[in-house]
Design goal:
Layout lengths: L6 E6 L1 H15 L10 E6 L2 E6 L2 E8 L4 E5 L1 H7 L5 E4 L4 H4 L5 E2 L3 E4 L8 E6 L5 E7 L3 H6 L4 E8 L3 H4 L3
Parallel strand pairs: 6-9
Antiparallel strand pairs: 1-2, 2-3, 3-4, 4-5, 6-8, 7-11, 9-10, 10-11
Length: about 170
Amino acid sequence: MSEKKLRRRTPVRYKQVKTIIDEISIMIGSNFDISDRFLEKANFDDKDILLVDRKILAFQVKTKNSKSWFPTVRGVLHWMPEIKWAAVDHGAIPFLLNGADCMGAGIHLVDNSIKSGDLMWIKDKEHGKPIAIGIAIVDGEQMIEMKNGKAVKTIHWIGDELWELET
């Protein structure tokens, strides 16, 4: 089995990725300026990746209807968005770090603007640090009321291949 690595890594100009940056800004609810940074695009495991100063900060995710750009866990750490999040208790964290989907019972706080199918990030309720990125299975208002069942399909987490990738 071959080791996975970044493929087609190419430096790009800001104007070439401005639409991507705009999409990410809308998704996380804040504007940021990276026009003076070293930008690259690459591919990893059939996902397009955006690197900023050699750090993987965003990736393109296939959702039900389309492909959308969203920050990676490192991107969330870097930009700290204030929308599209759910906070889980400490009992859920070991499961999330092993790639498990997020169960509704572990969610204690949530951004109520989340709709089913939205990309979102999961954080530790105590420290506010990101743990994983996922796709909402139910609306945010339903997540907080769930006693059982999956609430978020996890697609990227701390410790997965994308997180461990050396750039």
